[in-house]
Amino acid sequence: MEVRKVFSSATRSVSSASLRQRLSSFSSLTTTPLKPVANLHARIDFVPAKIPRKRRLQTLAVAIWSTTIVWCIAIFLILCSFPPLWPLLAAYMIWVRYLDKSPESGGRLSPWFRSMALWRYFADYYPASFLKTCDLPPDRPYVFGYHPHGEGAICTFATESIGFSAAFPGIVPHLLTLASNFRMPFYRDIILAMGICSVSKESCSRILKKGPGHAITIVVGGAAESLSAHPGTADLTLRKRLGFIKIAIRHGADLVPVFSFGENDIYQQMPNEKGTTLYTLQKKFQSVFGFTLPLFHGRGLLNYNLGLMPYRRRIVAVIGHPIHVVQCENPTLEEITHVQQQYIDELMWIWNTYKDDFARTRTRELSIIE
User: Fold this and answer.
1) Residue 233 · residue 149 · CB < 8 Å
2) Which tens digit of pLDDT belongs to each residue from 28-81?
3) What is the pLDDT of residues 338-363, one digit of tens each?
4) How many CB atoms lie under 10 A from the CB of residue 55?
5) Is residue 253 a contact partner of residue 208, using CB atoms and an 8 Å limit?
6) What does the alpha-carbon distance between residue 30 and residue 322 come to, in Å, rounded to a whole number?
7) Residue 353 CB: number of other CB atoms within 10 A?
8) Closest to 154 measured CA to CA, from 120, 110, 178, 200
9) Between residues 290 and 215, the one the model is more confident about
10) Are 254 and 142 contacting, i.e. CB atoms less than 8 angstroms apart?
11) Strands (E), 5-163
12) How far is CA 110 from CA 130, 135, 172, 324, in A?
């Protein structure tokens, strides 16, 4: 049996009085209009239109260096799209892969390239500088240990932007990096001109064997230390790193600790404490590829709080006193750990002496976590 609803004309119609009453109730509601563009501007701190030309050039210099790998690979791929260039590119890659031994034998340091105005703008962006605690006579080789992992090493040891050679005449510095960086076309030639070499044992030995005045700089904490880089902290990966000390003893090279204040303040990194999923994934990536990818953010070209460029934070690399070592071809573990303790003591002296000058916003004290 079909049930039908019967509607009268009275139930289907709405009186004009009730309609006006309903409309008035809606109009009485106060709502905030959606303004997505205004909200975006509220969250992002954009750069003012009027900025001194010098600051523009500083930002440009950092942007160029930060994207060097990207545009070097892009140029190589573009050149590969022209068949007439294939023989030249093939010859270049054979030379890179099999013939050129510069990364393992001291690089191709170019004083002109290291002194370019680009690097001065790059250093002035932060600004970066170094503090000399004593003279380093050029009558012996040196092994500089740099802490923590960061951009200040480029300014201090891979360029003349802040005057390393003028402060330490007779010393030829070589910043060391992963051998994989020298497989990237064109990028490898840029860093070789900066005096950067491979961090392999063979490379270290060949440079130090060149004699007095030659120096290598090793970023001791490496990729593992970059995962601990958070603003206001100084967590170093050092306790298990004995290789650079052994190299110094074998070649009779003085060890010089360098602590760079402000390095961990130029980026914000996502929380990745031990035990978190992010930390586990980053360590797994490191074990497979030899380096890791911290998830960080900084500022942009046209804003101050969103992007992948570093913040403008002062970086001061304090170059400590040299630790003299007695040359020994096969040092014992006891001898190595003894020198390591001297090295750590000097590093702690640097921190305790200068932390109130250069680390006023620290959230905790220097800590050696590994």
Assistant:
1) no
2) 444 444 444 444 445 888 888 888 999 999 999 999 999 999 999 999 999 999
3) 999 999 999 999 999 999 999 999 99
4) 14
5) yes
6) 71
7) 12
8) 120
9) 215
10) yes
11) 128-132, 142-147
12) 22, 24, 11, 30
